[in-house]
Amino acid sequence: MKAAPFHFHQPATLAELAGLLTSLSNARILAGGQSLVAMLNLRLVTPDHLVDINKIADLATLRQTGGTIEIGAMVRQHTLLHAPLIAQHLPVLVEALGHVGHMQTRSRGTIGGSCCHLDPSAELPAMCALLDAAFTVNGARGRRIVPASDWFAGLMQAALAEDEFLESISITPWSGKHGYGFAEYARRHGDYAIVGAGALLEADGEGTIKRAALVLFGCDTAPQRLPQAEAALVGTRAANIDFAGLAAAARAQEMMSDAQVTAAYRARLAGIMMHRAVKAAQGRLNKERP
Amino acid sequence: MSARYFGASVARSEDARLLIGQGRYVDDIDMPGMLHVAFVRSPMAHARLKAVDLAPARAMPGVVAAYTMEDFAGLAEGPMPPMAPHPLIKQPLTCHPLARHELCYVGEAIAMVVAQDRALAETAALAVMVDLEELPAVADARAALQPDAAPVHLGRDSNLLASLHTQFGDIDAAFEAADHRLTETFATHRGGCHAMECRGVVASYDQREDHLSIYTSSQAPFMVRRQLANYLSRDEQTIRVAAPDVGGGFGPKANVYPEEFALALGALKLGRPLKWIEDRQEHFVATNQQRDQFWTLEVAFTASGRILGLKGHGIHDSGAYAPYGVILPANALVCFPGPYAMQAIDIRLDVALTNLVPTSPVRGASRPNVAFILERIVDKVARHLGHSREAVRAASFVRAAQMPYFTGGVARDGSRVSYDSGDYQVALDMVLEKIGAADFTTRQRDALKRGKLLGLGLAACVEDTGIGPFEGASLRVTPRGKLVIATGAAAQGQGHATMLAQIAADVLSIDMADITVEAGDTGRFPLGLSTVGSRIAVTAGNSVHVAAQKLRSKALHFASLKLEVGADDLELSEGAVQVKGVPGLKIPLADIARALAGTTGVPLPGGMEPDLAATAYFESSGVTFAYGSNACEVEIDTETGDTRVTRYVVVHDCGRMINPMIVDGQIRGGVIHGIGNALFERMLHDEQGQPLTTTYGEYLLPMACEMPNIEIHHIETPSPRNPLGVKGAGEAGTIPAAPCVISAIENALEFQLGKAAPFITHHPVSPLDVVEWLDGGQG
Amino acid sequence: MTAMLTLTVNGRDMSAAAPANMHLGDFLRHVLGLTGTHMGCEHGVCGSCTVIVDGQPVRACLMLARQAQGARIETVEGLAQDGRLSPLQAAFRDHHALQCGFCTPGMLMTLTALLRDVPNPGESEIRAAISGNICRCTGYQGIVEAALAVATRNEASTS
After folding, report:
1. Which chain A residues are Cβ-neighbours of C48 within 8 angstroms?
2. Domains of chain B: which residue ranges?
3. Which residues of A touch B283 (CB under 8 A)?
4. Residues B327 and B290 sit within 8 Å (Cβ to Cβ)
5. What is the ipTM of this complex?
6. Per-residue pLDDT tens over the stretch B232-277
């Protein structure tokens, strides 16, 4: 189980990276490597060129500009988990990060790597979908912004061309008083979830929901937002959420099956996890956070 | 003899080295000029091997050689010798080191590539062109025995390898006398061993000395040497096989494997040291597993819950070959009737070939499977009669007053099975008390308030341990007064070096720090068998004890001659023989060792034999039976079906304990293995025999967050069958764990569903099963 | 495709060549001869190969050797100082936290990293920390008890 040979490149700047991606064929970008190096060892991928972007400092910045949090593609999961900025503005992301792999994988794994690898059961892409993140893509042909709704191009397929790379992920936090919830079921701590869900709710002073976002992951090839259920929540009183209806909506989504988990069980979990996530979000509505 | 060490939780002498990264496992061995091997393996579960073209691999940079079996013509030929021939196997069924014409499971080795490093070897192995014609494959043991089943091997008229049978008593009379009869079917599944160190081999050949040396991650280095010598038509003297530090064994490493032979052949052919380290992907397809047994059994019992008899049959998945004979299925039959006194049994077990990785014992061998069946049947009888589970056990147990108890069964060696000692009822009572069975229903009601279903599980077991005929030991005092213990028994983490040193240290009054243990190396000791079946404390432990006694007598005899004091007035103390009560009058063992090492022209005193050393091959007066009862609590999330073992209590009797800390460690690890078998581990294949779970993301091993602490209590009933009074403990945790956990799940479901709760007949149980039961009652 | 690397391992500056496709685990073991780090699965699940890189626990099978250029690496060989076991190593021996010893280096490095960040973790934190390390022998209990013993000692010495 040793990786096949490849040429190794370690650009130090975005321009170098863009140049390499333009000139090399059959190249793969190496971010945190927590999925890719395993796939290399297993020879599930055999690139001719490996482009390691760990030395590009510009990709590892985490900052707030205006109302937006900009997370460099190479910001480590460990860093995000312990960043006060994230804890304050994107608490749902922190909760999800607690379920991402293990100590040893979070210390190298990056948000950008996870969002480009796009395992259907991965937590971070799902949170990006939930938070309507904007993906800044760069390359020799210039920068462009891809909204989360367009990012998921297929099974483990991000909306990136071969000569492009993910530069950063921008997220506009919800108001300080929003409620958030996250729930997933995995057989063992740190495993990829079988199914997970996230929920964000915002209510007015009267307790009427004015904004809602719901996401399921692990069910289909990519995270699934539930726009109809979100729309149905808006205008209802937070105290009167129709949990049964939400669970039914979750169960009705497209479900995969595999050798160990049936589509029916995934659907069951989807209902449960959606219920739990929304319940948690409801409980946190209008609660001041530090 | 003062028991300074025996019975004490002495810290292990193995640990200091392992903790600082100075262990020496096979992959840590490096040799000048060493080359690295990768195997070309079958991608199909059944295929005709039409041609192999090694030329593309041989032409690659860094590749030194590439071989198929044909390349070894003149060195050896034919299939590997069977390790355990059995009269019921008419045609031995072992594979070639490298396959010749037919491939019978995914992973069977076809060719080997030798290169400067492993990555190059793997690249070249992928370049080997293999021409295959796919043949129909059989991936299920039940399907294998259907009349229209495809043959697992071309040219064999049946996939039935052997049909084994056990019976005693008058089964018809027992069933006629019974008030009740019930029939149930069971599907038990166990996965692989998954020692954290995969297998590995380093082979080198010294042409000038005509000596072949093999390091292998093995539980049975002496068996490897014996079989290899047979296969190569060499004298055993010219082969050394050593197991260095071994990173876990758990059964499958007790086999002799094709890779061990292929590396030996390659080293002989090439004259260069070769290393092959099994990678984890290979481990899933090239190391023996255990997998499936299917059973249909009918039980006869009285209205009071006493079980009278059991009859029926089972099907055992042998996999593609039978390198280990029929030991695994034969073991199953020896496990009946478990801890229960029955009037009669009549049980048949068909051994079916499949196009899957061969099977052989995994921790507990078939004992966990049979414990599952017996304990499930007892639980079923209890439910049928509306009695408690403990009441049916109490009514059916072999009683202490019946010891030694002849079950009626016959052991593999033909002897009558007789349980030697113990009180099964006491163990059950104790475990119920320790887990707090009396107020369990209160906890169950409280859990429901948290939305959790709580269940209490129970399982009893009895285990044959310490099977013969022997593991020997020799003890020798060096001229510096240190004691060297040599034994054939290889260790894989059980703490043998500590345990054996404890025994010798007490007999010889030597400090543990002055004792070294050399084990599992054919160059250090003449004979050895295998570290399997919870047998080393009994066999090697007693051999050390007997040899130490002999060595002690010899030292006393020498001192009595020198000091002119009767041996009865002498004692050993702090590495010396001294006159009792006169500490100043003594001879250090080092001096005796030097004297008995001899001086040219000087006769030894009193015509004594040279060397302060002794060897013993303790031969047990029969297998000794450990036993115990386990209880656990599981908590079920009724929404997801998630099932956690939250408490686990073991009451166990393995006779006198040499090192309770080590015994507890063996039991704890064993229980966790059993919980893995109950809830997590499943080796899946598709209908074409392709393995579906070949990474640790897909094959779920028990991990820290999901596992409970294990509370252990001991009963110490000395075994009357060996001088130390010990019984084995290596598999004790695993054997009853799966039925205990499953019993708890069923108990929780009964609380929720009442009589509609399913009777659970398989393991592992997944959350999908649990929600199906919760939704639909009967599974 | 082979390049020279310089890095610090257990406080010592080292320099050696590594091919591009070699992971850090093989580099430590077979190039530098530090065989205490063990390869259990090479696909990033078992945790046996855990080492500390620039202060963080990392799976050595999921990092290429070339990525360790300039890094400060700690392995199991560096835990004992002047022949004395670290408190965690000693606790492993006292609590029978190892049997075959194969997963032990990864467990030690993971828990060493945890105990630096969180000097007195509770049982659930300890179990979560080793949730990415498989042990097939001990059932984890001895390992958890060993880490708890160090945690308790740390707590006593800071209060």
Report:
1. none
2. 15-22+468-616, 31-135+193-286, 291-466+621-776
3. none
4. no
5. 0.98
6. 999 999 999 999 999 999 999 999 999 999 999 999 999 999 999 9
